[in-house]
Amino acid sequence: MDRLERYGLVLAVLCCIGCEPSAVENVPENHDAPSPPPAESIEANVSAYCACDKCCGKWADGITASGHKIKPGDRFVAADKRYAFGTMVTIPGYGRVPILDRGGAIRGNKIDVYHDTHKQALRWGRQYLSVTIERKKQ
User: Fold this and answer.
1) Cα–Cα nearest to 105, from 134, 121, 81, 128
2) pLDDT class for 32, splitting at 50, 70, 90?
3) Strand, helix or coil at 96?
4) In angstroms, rounded to a whole number, what is the distance separating the alpha carbons of residues 47 and 99?
């Protein structure tokens, strides 16, 4: 979009302030808007954990590596440090959740899904799944 087109677009928007909504329908979309971050699918070894001593050892304080204070019903994962905290991950059978934690054994394509109780974590077990990771823009 060149300078003249931008000027016309700004003028059109300014003129339409207070107009009927139908008057603004033909304003062109902003094609310079950033595209969503790319996603990648990986085959991952997905296990489960909770915030108990058995799962977390001396780090069983209810606070994740990102500083998130765990509350009942929280859903998030622990993943390799190559993925930034807050990166969204979609895991079949668990959902679309953020990466909020790390772990000593979490390297490469290993992911831990968080559960409220040890019984729930054991029920999940270990699964080999195709997961989608939405890369955050740096």
Assistant:
1) 81
2) low
3) strand
4) 14
